[in-house]
């Protein structure tokens, strides 16, 4: 069996770098390097220069926006003056706008059923063809919505005053708001009906699921004899029975009894030792020590010559 051992090779990982937007250079992405670079004189000068450029650019954009607003305001004033001049020179232009507005209001009133009566509206359309208007200087004049004729003096026929025009506009605005309110109410009603329908569908599906689970959980009736109260019987004491001896029909042998001798331990006997006397007689005996004699034969301790030269 061969064992394959895999050894991973070493790999090189480059150091992370960070780009400085103010100095346009790369630095090492670690805390000491970043702090050293940010505390440098060159970096601080670049940051100060960038902030001054941003402030200068913002001031220029502000001045430019002011100029644009002033130009737009001049254009609006010029357009308003031209419009008023056209109205004074040609009243038919304003009459067309008012006729379109009135026709739109009338159609809205007819559609909603909240306008004036047909007879009154017909009278207003047929009789009140003159409308009262007011110029920029505050002068009141009258103009005909069909012919476009204008005059300073009030006409002999009936005309629609500024107050009545405001009432008509207010009524049209009211009808418009009422219509929007009704549309919102109708949308809310439709949304509520849709929500109720979805809720009913959800409840119906939930009820069907509950019924299915109940039918699945209800056990089926068992047909057949009733089960016994004690199906395994009553308790009984266990009787231990000895097995019967088995006759192996082996040959019979005579039994001779052998006497085994008993091992007797030897009897230990103790004897008494007697002393002749113990007393003052021993003290009378003199005890002496024999002194050793040194150098009794000095020749033995001396080196003797074994071979004699003749």
TrEMBL record:
Region named Disordered: 101-120, 170-230
Matching InterPro entries: Matrin/U1-C_Znf_C2H2, Matrin/U1-like-C_Znf_C2H2, U1-CZ_Znf_C2H2, WBP4, WW_dom, WW_dom_sf, Znf_C2H2_sf
Coiled coil region boundaries: none
Alphabetical UniProt keywords: Metal-binding, Nucleus, Zinc, Zinc-finger
GO cellular component, one term: precatalytic spliceosome
Gene3D superfamilies given in the database record: 2.20.70.10, Classic Zinc Finger
Domain annotation Matrin-type: ranges: 18-49
Chain intervals with Basic residues compositional bias: 173-182
Biological processes, Gene Ontology terms: mRNA splicing, via spliceosome
Compartment(s) where it occurs, according to its Swiss-Prot or TrEMBL record: Nucleus
WW domain sequence ranges: 130-157
GO MF term set: RNA binding; zinc ion binding
Superkingdom assignment: Eukaryota
Listed Basic and acidic residues bias regions: 183-215
Protein name per the record: WW domain-binding protein 4
Organism: Zootermopsis nevadensis
């Amino acid at each position: 069996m061969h064992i394959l051992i895999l050894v991973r090779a070493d790999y090189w990982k480059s150091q992370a770098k960070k780009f400085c937007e103010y100095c346009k250079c790369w630095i090492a992405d670690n805390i000491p390097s970043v702090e050293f670079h940010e505390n440098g004189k060159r970096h601080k000068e670049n940051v100060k220069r960038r902030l001054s450029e941003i402030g200068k650019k913002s001031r220029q954009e502000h001045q430019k926006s002011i100029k644009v607003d002033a130009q737009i305001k001049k254009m609006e004033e010029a357009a308003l003056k031209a419009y008023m001049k056209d109205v004074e020179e040609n009243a038919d232009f304003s009459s067309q706008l008012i006729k379109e507005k009135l026709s739109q209001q009338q159609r809205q009133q007819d559609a909603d059923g909240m306008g004036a009566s047909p007879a009154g509206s017909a009278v207003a359309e047929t009789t009140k063809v003159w409308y009262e208007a007011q110029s920029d200087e505050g002068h009141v004049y009258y103009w005909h919505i069909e012919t476009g004729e204008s005059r300073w003096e009030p006409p002999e026929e009936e005309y629609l005053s500024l107050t009545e025009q405001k009432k008509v506009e207010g009524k049209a605005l009211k009808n418009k708001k009422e219509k929007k309110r009704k549309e919102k109410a109708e949308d809310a009603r439709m949304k509520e009906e849709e929500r109720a329908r979805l809720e009913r569908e959800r409840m119906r599906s939930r009820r069907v699921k509950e019924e299915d689970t109940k039918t699945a959980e209800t056990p089926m009736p068992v047909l057949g004899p009733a089960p016994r109260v004690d199906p395994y019987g009553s308790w009984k004491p266990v009787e231990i029975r000895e097995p019967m001896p088995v006759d192996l029909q082996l040959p019979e042998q005579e039994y001779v009894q052998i006497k085994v001798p008993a091992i007797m331990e030897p009897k230990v006997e103790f004897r008494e030792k007697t002393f002749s006397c113990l007393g003052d007689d021993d003290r009378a005996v003199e005890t002496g020590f024999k002194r050793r004699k040194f150098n009794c034969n000095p020749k033995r301790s001396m080196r003797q010559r074994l071979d004699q030269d003749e």
